[in-house]
Amino acid sequence: MTITPTGTAAEVELAIGGMTCASCAARIEKKLNRMDGVTATVNYATEKAKVSYGGDVSVQDLIATVEKTGYTAREPAPPRDRPDDGDGDAEAHDELRPLRQRLITAVLLAVPVVAMAMVPALQFEYWQWLSLTLAAPVVTYAAWPFHRAAVTNARHGAATMDTLISVGTSAAFGWSLWALFLGSAGTPGMTHPFELTIARGDGSGNIYLEAAAGVTAFILAGRYFEARSKRRAGAALRALLELGAKDVTVLRADGREETVPTAELKAGDRFLVRPGEKIATDGTVVEGSSAVDASMLTGESVPVEVAAGDAVTGATVNVGGRLVVEATRVGADTQLARMARLVEDAQNGKAAAQRLADRVSAVFVPIVIALALGTLGFWLGNGAGPAAAFTAAVAVLIIACPCALGLATPTALMVGTGRGAQLGILIKGPEVLESTRRVDTVVLDKTGTVTTGRMTLLAVHPGAGTDEAEVLRLAGALEHSSEHPVARAVADGALEKLGSLPSPEDFANVPGLGVQGVVEGHAVLVGRERLLGEWAMELPEELKRARAQAEAAGRTAVAVAWDGAARAVLEVADAVKDTSAEAITRLRSLGLTPILLTGDNRAVAGSVAREVGIAPEHVIAEVLPQDKVDVVKRLQGEGRSVAMVGDGVNDAAALAQADLGLAMGTGTDAAIEAGDLTLVRGDLRAAADAIRLSRRTLGTIRSNLFWAFAYNVAALPLAAAGLLNPMIAGAAMAFSSVFVVGNSLRLRSFRAEA
Fold first, then answer.
1. Is the dihedral of CA 522, 528, 529, 534 positive or negative?
2. pTM above the 0.90 mark?
3. In whole angstroms, how far apart are CA 7 and each of 4, 107, 257, 341, 407?
4. Mean pLDDT by 10 residues, the chain (754 residues)
5. Which residues form the catalytic set?
6. Cα angle at 65 between 63 and 70, to 5 degrees?
7. Rounded to an integer, what is the distance from CA 48 to the centroid of its chain?
C-alpha cells in the first residue's frame, strides 16, 4: 500500500479485483468519487485505484464501497513480500491458472461442436444431442465467470461486458434447448442451417450450440491472452521494483561484518560491496575503487569508475574491486524508489482521450442492450422469423466491446513508461505525451546539461624547452593542495596523465591570484599572470598568444612558472560533453530548434555553441538565474512551444514554466521535481530519446483508440444487419482487445539511438 499524507488529505493505492472491462472501472470510479472528500482514478489495465481522501473517510470505508459495487479491493502487498514463481509475478500467475483451465475445457469441447455445425459430412444421426452434451459444460462451467459477474452487476443495477456475454451465450443455449426439445431440431438426420445472413422465415428447427460454445471459447481466449499481455506490459515496472539488493553486509563499529536485510539499513551505516554484488542503497564511497554497472537504471552500458568520495546509486552492480559505502538515502528516499513511484504514477494516470473513452464505456453496455432489443424487434416486425431475428440480436450483444476502449491508453502507457524506465527515461504522466508532440523549441541550460558542469584541464601549452610532463608534475602537485575549482581541474588532469604527484612544501594560497610553493626543490607559481608580475616575471610572446587564444575561446588561462621564469600556460574550462553535439543533431532531426541559455559571458557561450553546432542567433548569454523563467515566457510569447532541459536548482522554475520540462537525473531534486520528464543519465542524447519515446507512445495510444472506436462503429451495424454469425462476432470481439494490447507491446522494441 502507498499512503501519502498531503495536509488534511491522504492518498492510497488499492488493488482492484473482478474488473472485466472499462465499464467496470468507470463504475468503481464513479462510486468512489461520490464519497465526501474523495477523488479517485481507477485504471482497468493496471487494476489499481489511486484515491485521495480526507475527513472521516478511512481506507476501510473505501474498500467497503468498492465491495458494495460488486468488486474486491485490498491494500497491495509490497513487491518483495509476494511469492515469486520465477516469472516475475506469482500473484498474476495464480489468477491466470483458473482462467487457463476454463479456456482449455472450452476449446476441447467447443471445437467438435463447431465442426459438426459447419461441416455437413460430420452430422450423423443424433449429432445435435452430442453437440448439446459437449456444449453444456462450456456454457455452464467455462462461462461461469461471465454469468456470476452478470448476476452480481444486476444486483447492483448495473450492466457490463459480462452482462452482454452472459445474456448472449445463455440466449443461444436456451434457444437451442427449446429447439431440441420442443421444436424440430431434435429430428434425426436434420442438417444444421448455418446462416451468415438473414434469409429464412420461421426457422424453428435452428440450434445455436456452436455459437454459445464458440463465443465462450473465443472470449475466454481473448481474456486469457489479454491478461498475459497485460502482465508483459507491466513487466518493466515489476523488474524495476525487484532490482534492489535483498541483503547487505554492514560493517559494525567493532569491525564486525553482519549480513542483514536491506530494509534494516539506516542512513549513516557503512556497508561492504564485493565484486559482482549489487549496491544496497544510495551512498558515498568511503573506501576502495571500482567500476559500477548502472545500465539497469540509466540505460548506459559503459560502467562508471568510482573511488572514495564518489556517490553511488542503489541497485547498480559493482563489477570491479571491493567498496565500502556509507548509506546516505534508504528506503523510499532512494533513486530506485523514486523512479518506481514516477513510473507507477504515470501508469495510473489518464489522458484526455482516455477519459472520453471511459465516459463512452460507462453508457456503452446499456446502449448495446437497447440496440440488441431494437434489432430483435426490427427483424421480427419485418417478417424475418424468430431464428433470423434472434441471430442478429445475439450477434449485436456479442460483438460490442468496450474492453478495447478501456485498454487503449493504459496498456500503451504501461509499456511506454516501463520501456522508458529501462532506458533511464521517466515519464511523469499521460498529459506529458501531448506536450512532446507540440514542442518546436528546446532551451538547453549550458552548465551540467550541454557541458559537464565541472572545470576540466583541456590543454597544456609549454614554452620553448619545457617538457609537458614536467609542467603537469610541478603544477599538479601544487594545485593538489588547493580546493579551488580551477586548481582541482589542473590537479585531476595531472593525476589522470601521470598517475601520481609529488608532495609540495611551503604551500601558500595567494587569494584571487593563485598558489605558490616548493616542489622537488623548485619554487613554483601557478595562477593568474598578475601573480607572475608580482615576482617580476613576464610571459614570453608564444605563451601570451596561447593565453589570448584561450581567453578568446571563453576558457580560463592559468600561468605556470618556476625558478624565476614563466614556463607554460594551462587551459581550463567547463568541458562540453562528448555526446552534446550529436544530441543537438538528433534534436534538430525531431523538428526542434535548440537554444543555448547560460549566465556565462558571450565569449564562453559562443565557444560552447560553436562546438556543439548551435547557431549564434540561438545563444542567450549573461542571463541571471532568476531571469531564466522570463526567457521561457518570452519565447512562449513569440508563439513557440518550449521544452526546457536543465539540472540545477536555478532551472526548476524555468522547467515548471516550460511546456515540457526535461530534468537531468544527475541534477538537483528541485529540478527533477519540476520536470515532466526525468533523464536518469546525464547524457543530452537521452533528451532526444525521451521525446522520440513519448511521441511513439502517444502515437500508439491514438492508434489504439482509433481502432477500438472504429471496430465498434463498423461491427455493430454489420451485426444489426444480420451479416455476422454470433460465433464470428465473439471471435472478432476477443481479437479487438488482444489487438490493442499487442499493438501496445510493440513499444517494447523501442531502442535508444546508438
1. negative
2. no
3. 10, 54, 42, 20, 34
4. 52 83 79 88 79 85 87 69 43 68 91 84 84 92 88 77 80 82 54 35 56 80 72 59 78 84 87 88 88 67 76 84 89 74 60 60 76 89 80 79 69 80 77 82 87 85 91 92 83 90 89 87 90 86 89 83 92 86 94 88 82 92 80 92 80 83 68 72 86 90 84 83 76 76 86 76
5. 445
6. 95
7. 16
